[in-house]
Amino acid sequence: MTGQSGATNTPSNTAALATRPVTVLLVDDQAIVGEAVRRMLAPEADIQFHFCSDPGKAIDTALAVQPTVILQDLVMPDIDGLTLVKYFRANPATHQTPMIVLSSKEEPVIKAQAFGLGANDYLVKLPDRVELIARIRYHSRSYINQLERDEAYRQLAESQQIMAEELTQASHYVQSLLPKALKAPVRVDWSFVPSTQLGGDMFGFHWLDLEHLAIYLLDVSGHGVGSSLLAVSASNLLTSQALPNTDFRNPGQVMSRLNDVFQMDRQNDKYFTIWYGVYRSGDRSLVYSNGGHPPPLLWTGSTPAEAALTQLNPTDPFIGMCPPGMDFETQSVKLDPYAMLLVYSDGAFEIENPAGVMWKHQEFVDFVSHLPRNGDLLSDSLLRSVRQRRGSDLLSDDFSVLEVRF
């Protein structure tokens, strides 16, 4: 709670609010009324009583004692009681504090004015002791409950803000790990648009030696920090060639070792799909292995106009779902003088339009097959189409595309 005094709740205040005592502030210029109310409340051990006989000091007294309910007379010298109600409601620290107006008369017009200015209750003084205590407890408990809810919401909003900032930093870190584009002798461009959640896409490409270029794209199941950490861990092993007893020029062997290392039962039941390929410049061949990943699209032929489109379909299961020691298949394809490869994650085609209709994979393939391959990047045209189909620039999954021209 924040008032003019500048006091602010901290996380430790949550428990304090739960045990906060009922605190009554009576504002009345008559000392005899103050004494009478004090005696009424004295037997109640959980009720703290404070009396202010000077209405000019009422706000300052309220800031000091932080009442859970204010009892206030309407007829006082120097200041009109209804005006004081207005002052209490205008002050941030007492804006929501319950107020019970005490009046010597049961006047409907005055009562309506008091409620109109923000009073919570109205009693003709001096009220019966049992009734007064019941109303004090009722209004105080409601107010304390409200303070507890407000504090819980404040802490929740604060934790969500911290989490959002941490996720943003994590997203920036993941993007900082992505490789720079290659220009020659093989051109590799990429597009990556993170989703509204921290995702599990990761990709890379690097020369293993002068004649072998490794290319991969993986997608971890789910979203969030766990998926992102697993994606980064797997990518680091591939980029640094740190898998033991592995020939990184052999895609099937690489996939088998990844499956050994990233078993689901050791990764919080997470698995990932991956396409891993190696371009052999010596004989212009592409060897690859596909563990449950969307099939990359390969155009190859004598010229761009004559190039035929082939889908490099998966032949093996997801990484982590099969027992250690499983062999993964290595496939090979010969590249003609013109060859272009498009590797992508499912975030590039699993797009739901505003009507709830999902883009089918074959529709995606048909769309991409008709895009021109001699101008702008295919991924740029694809991204524009994806956003148009979704009806928003914000994506529900990571959009990852590698575009390779051999």
Give the structure's gist in a few sentences:
With 406 residues, the chain is α/β, with parallel strands linked by helices.
Uncertain residue ranges? 1-12
Which structural class best describes the helix and strand composition? alpha/beta
Number of helices: 10
Q: Label the overall shape.
A: elongated
Strand order of the largest sheet: 2-1-3-4-5
Give the tally of β-strands.
Answer: 15
Q: Could you tell me how far the N terminus lies from the C terminus, measured between alpha carbons in angstroms?
A: 65 Å
Largest sheet: 5 strands, parallel
What is the ordering of alpha helices and beta strands? Answer: HEHEHEHEHEHEEEHHEEEEEEHHE
Describe the protein in words:
This protein is an alpha/beta fold. It is 34% helix and 23% strand. The strands form 3 sheets. A 5-stranded parallel β-sheet has the order 2-1-3-4-5, sandwiched between helices. The longest helix is centred in the middle third of the chain and has 48 residues, at 129-176. The protein is elongated and about 105 Å long. Mean pLDDT is 87; it is low at 1-12.
